[in-house]
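User: I've been trying to design a sequence by hand for this structure and keep getting stuck. Would you show me what you'd pick, starting by listing the structure so we're on the same page?

Assistant: Good idea, let's start from the same input. This is the structure you sent:
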């Protein structure tokens, strides 16, 4: 599933370069190739969902919580822009990936009053963070993949405790027989899924580097996790890629997810504003499911 979008991204990039160099014939050829690739992507990811709404949204009963996940792009999201988007998101809890030391510092300095409970590991690609309006009882890193720890925490909401996992498995790699995730990544996702489904309310957010068409997405759903955007989001919810270095791109895939157990019910989900990262943020509004969850 990654081959066609990868081809589209490459052809789109070289089309822009050709226009910039005024190589009109080459630009025209690549433009036709790009449109052909776009047609294939439309078929692959069912582009009709761009204008088809999702009628399955629930009417909220009582208090709801807004959760957000964002890959900050290892420094691509400029400090002030990033902070403003986070501040204006309305999120009660935010899971961050790929935050640098500089991004972590400005977040910590400027969002302390809005998010009094913060965990920030500014480590670049492995960087993770949680910003919360609610008390964080405890947290620890999960060393499931070499030099790429995930993050798990327990957060005290009004109704009870919520386990929060912030994850970022590596993307698929090019192998001699195709493009796919290696065994270590599949094991990482397997352990994360088992942690998320062992009982109790769990929210698992992050850049999973998979699309809804992947086998792993189906596996997570079959094990009882709910993809909030797939349930109640409108349109495809594409979050990647917004840019390649300084070149703007069109997002063609949703690889960022807000997963949750049935202890919470999705009310709404949407794509957030651009921070300058190569990813767009993803948000979801959830409510406590009293039929399952208990304080």
């Amino acid at each position: 599933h990654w081959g066609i979008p990868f081809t589209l991204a490459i052809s789109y990039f070289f089309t822009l370069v050709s226009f910039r160099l005024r190589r009109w014939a080459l630009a025209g050829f690549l433009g036709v190739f790009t449109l052909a690739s776009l047609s294939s992507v439309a078929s692959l990811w069912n582009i009709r969902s761009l204008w088809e709404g999702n009628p399955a949204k629930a009417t909220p009963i009582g208090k709801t919580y807004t959760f957000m996940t964002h890959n900050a792009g290892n420094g691509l999201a400029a400090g002030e822009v990033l902070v403003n988007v986070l501040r204006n998101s309305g999120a009660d809890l935010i899971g961050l990936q790929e935050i640098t030391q500089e991004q972590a510092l400005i977040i910590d300095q400027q969002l302390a009053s809005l998010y009094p409970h913060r965990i920030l590991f500014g480590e670049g690609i492995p960087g993770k963070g949680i910003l919360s309006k609610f008390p964080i009882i405890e947290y620890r890193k999960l060393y499931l993949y070499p030099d790429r720890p995930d993050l798990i925490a327990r957060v005290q909401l009004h109704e009870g405790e919520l386990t929060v996992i912030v994850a970022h498995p590596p993307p698929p790699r090019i192998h001699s027989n195709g493009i796919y995730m290696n065994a270590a990544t599949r094991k990482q996702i397997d352990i994360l899924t088992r942690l998320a489904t062992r009982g109790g309310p769990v929210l698992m957010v992050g850049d999973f580097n998979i699309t809804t068409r992947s086998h792993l997405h189906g596996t997570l759903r079959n094990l009882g996790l709910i993809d909030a955007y797939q349930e109640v989001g409108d349109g495809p919810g594409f979050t990647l890629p917004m840019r390649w270095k300084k070149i703007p791109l069109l997002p063609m895939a949703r690889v960022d997810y807000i997963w949750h157990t049935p202890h919470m019910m999705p009310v709404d989900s949407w794509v957030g504003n651009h921070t300058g990262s190569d990813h767009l943020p993803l948000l979801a509004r959830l409510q406590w499911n009293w039929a399952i969850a208990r304080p």
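That's my pick for every position. To get oriented when you compare it with your attempt: Helices lie at 3-20, 24-45, 79-88, 101-110, 183-196, 215-222, 228-232. Confidence is low (pLDDT under 50) at residues 39-53.
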